[in-house]
Amino acid sequence: MQKANKIFINIHGHRQANNIQEWVMMNLMAKDYPPEDIENGYYSVGYHPYNVGKVDDEDTLKKVRLSTENLNVFAIGEIGLDKSIEAPLEHQMRVFESQVEIAEFADLPVILHVVKAFNELVEFMKVHKPVVPMIIHGYNGSSQMAETLLNSGFLLSFGEAIAKEHSKIVESLLTVPVDKLFFETDEGDLDIREIYHFAAEVKGISLDHLRVQIYENARTHLTRFADLF
Ligand SMILES: [Zn+2]
Questions:
Q1: Domain CATH code at residue 150
Q2: Which of 103, 161, 196, 226 might form a disulfide with 76, Cβ 3.0–4.6 angstroms?
């Protein structure tokens, strides 16, 4: 696949590509690794905070480690911290830290699920200073928080929330420089091209300019994408 094919990068989805222009990184819970059709797509694999306390830590982390040996696995994720669920934060943090170590060892980026725990994450960056790209998926916070996160070294991915013309998200999107950005469909129904369309309008740049920039971001930050495309 070449740039001429006009690829729209979808950094985080839960389905295969649904149009010829889309390149999607499908998310897979580590407990379900490996899927039968591992060869048919590109994946992020991670021990999600939702599963903390429900699966065996050692077994599940082993699956994450094992998954990095498959070249169709492009990232560790989604992993992170979630204060809206019952699993103790301290347990979530242990699981999270172990996986960032795996990502560093395999030189793979991290896709982050963060709910009400941005400050903890910023603190984590200060202490651990991971060198692999750390991409916060489904960002829907304020522009002030976006700035704090960018200054801490995170990249931000936006999803269908920007299409709902929610003013807070639009403001946040304006704050993020295009070279720190990704887009995603996550579990939503929107076509990834539509999300780009809205974002280009907000940013005041052409759809094609935005598409090429995000493609370059993928080449810069996704080691295995750069090897392939
Ligand atoms: Zn997701």
A1: 3.20.20.140
A2: 103
